[in-house]
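If you are new to this repository, start here. Below is one unmodified record pulled from the training split, so you can see the exact layout before writing a loader.
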Amino acid sequence: MPVLFKLKDHIKENQLYLNRIVAATIGSAVLLVVLIVRLFILQVYHHETYVTLARNNQVRMISIAPTRGLIYDRNGILLANNVPGFSLEISPNRVKDLDKLIRKLAKIIPISDADIKNFYKQKTFKGRFERIPIRTKLSEEEVAAFSIEKYRFPEVDIHANLGRNYPHGEAFAHVLGYTGMLSEQDMGQIDIAKYRGTYFIGKSGIEKSYESLLHGKAGYEQVETDARGRMIRQLEEIPSVPGDNLYLSLDSKLQLLAYDLLQNQKGAVVALDVKTGGVLAMVSRPSFDPNLFVKGIPQETYDKLQHAKEQPLFHRAIRGQYPPGSTVKPLVALQALDHKVITPQTTFNDPGYYQLTANGRLYRDWLPEGHGIISLENAIAESCTTFFYFVADKLGIDRMHNIFSRFGLGELTNIDIHGEAKGIAPSKEWKKQTKRQAWFQGETIITGIGQGYTLVTPLQMASVASAIANRGTRVQPMLVKATQTHNQAVNDNPVVYAEKVELKHPEHWDTVINAMEKVIKYPRGTAHWINNPKSSFTMAGKTGTAQVYGIKQDETYDANKIKAALRDHAWFIAFAPVEDPQIAIAVIIENSKGSPMVARKILDAYFAGANNGQ
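And here is the target side for that same chain:
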């Protein structure tokens, strides 16, 4: 019996062991079936999905920035080009701890707080896989220093690129503008896809206005990389398309001369081609070096420029708004003649002042003793203030506003550059809307000599001089003369005409132009001191004084007794030759004199170049 019990126990143990083996076998079989089914699903149904994911682990799309178009003057002289440089760039998607990485990099290459701040700004709007520069404009020594340590930084690379360069620096700064690093604000205004791989964009001037043409079209290359992100081979490339080249109407020799002639004074010069509206020179002083902005200007340097008393960043030629002074007298004369308020033979007895009423305020002439009996032509030549008080009184503000507006004052010229100011051509309605006040007759009087509320830009006054030279034909100012695509196709910008100034009596053009010629030729003309009897060309012009500081009726203006910043501005507008005008010019010098001579020297240089076949 004990043996039988032992046999039964042994059989029971074997049966339990067998059951376990069977269960394990069945479990393994089930797991094997599940694994086979899973592998089948992965390999067959999701094959494309996982192949793509695997490929993305090895293949990278690298953007290729386009080469920015070049900018030339009318004679093919290079004004803005591209120079090679190096930048230190990080691929953030491959970095676990950016702050730690940057600290390590800073031990090899100097990285400022501003660099770091700008890097993180760029990171917020750049694509996930895009490289972002932590330092631009590396020196050769810095490139060498990083190259030695490169093996420690697989996520960081040095990349060659092309940076903007302005060979003539300050002289062209306001016209050309400059490029700078893309900002978050910029990204909100552009097609981001077109700027893959690009870090810079036009910020002002021509660079900004023609950004869409200058930038070009980004390309890309598809490359295979190893596990550490190093490129193994190139799989595909779509080349970038270079931006268009621009040919400006500017004459660089005139531009440089105008810049030099203004010296250290504040002011502006604008010279226009009378026939086409092409801008031959556009200078604003003081100026700045646009090359400072290209790779990122230090904040302290920018703050100094922005808050400088002389306002070097301010484009006076198109944004400066000044009282035009006596430069508007030819317009007032044209309107008065055309409306028969006066005739070419009208004379006026100038005692040195004008009064609206017998016991009223004295509106004084610049010549204390007056000009005596004076004609219209001589009143323009000598800039007799009281004559135009008289004319303005008879003409009225509405008709003066009309002629100012027809010549483009108070309106944009629509030049092909951003930032132009409109100025003010005052009227009763304008004052009612802006000041909520009635118009007074005394305001009409001073409007007739370009004071009061009237404000103009140097560009507008050059355009006025051009329109007078053309006897009413107005040509829209234009900076870009032609564009050239990457395949060398050249497209000329067409001449654009504004609404012509039509006179009821066209013969009055001759009266006013003859008077403007006397400004230089007549011994008592206000610009007679620049007359050159041996000159190869004739010239017509008009001086103007823009008051900055008002004096009392019983006081006489004395520049020596007034702070420099409160002294009058000096205007001069002109065109030449009188018989067949080719060039018109406007010059303003703030708080000083000498604008007629600046214009004279520029015109001399222009015609000397024309005679030499330039």
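Two things worth knowing about this chain: The two ends are 134 Å apart (CA to CA). The mean pLDDT is 88.
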